[in-house]
C-alpha cells in the first residue's frame, strides 16, 4: 500500500503571516519520516511538498516573493511517482 500526504514549501521556507501553515507542514514532514520507520513492511508513506504553483501565481504570488513556481503538471508527476514508485519516507 501507499500513503501520500501533501505539505508545502513553507515547512522549509517560512513566509510572512504563515506561522500556522509552517507549523502544520513541518509537523507533517516529521510525521512522515517517523511513520516510514514504523509502518509494516509493504506500506509506504510519502509527502509531496511543492512550492507555489504557476497556475496560482495571480492569487498567491504576493505571499511568495522570490519563490520559483512550478507547473501543476510537475506536481502531478510527483504524486504519480509517490503512488506508483518504491520510495518511502
TrEMBL record:
InterPro entries: NAD(P)-bd_dom_sf, SDR_fam. It holds the Pfam family adh_short_C2. This is SDR family oxidoreductase.
Amino acid at each position: 500500500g501507499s500513503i501520500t500526504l501533501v505539505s508545502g514549501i513553507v515547512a522549509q521556507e517560512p513566509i510572512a503571516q504563515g506561522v500556522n501553515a509552517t507549523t502544520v507542514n513541518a509537523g507533517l514532514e516529521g510525521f512522515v519520516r517517523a511513520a516510514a520507520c514504523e509502518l509494516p513492511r509493504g506500506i509506504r508513506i510519502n509527502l509531496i511538498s511543492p512550492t507555489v504553483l504557476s497556475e496560482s501565481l495571480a492569487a498567491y504570488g504576493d505571499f511568495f516573493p522570490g519563490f520559483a513556481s512550478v507547473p501543476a503538471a510537475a506536481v502531478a508527476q510527483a504524486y504519480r511517482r509517490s503512488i506508483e514508485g518504491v520510495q518511502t519516507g
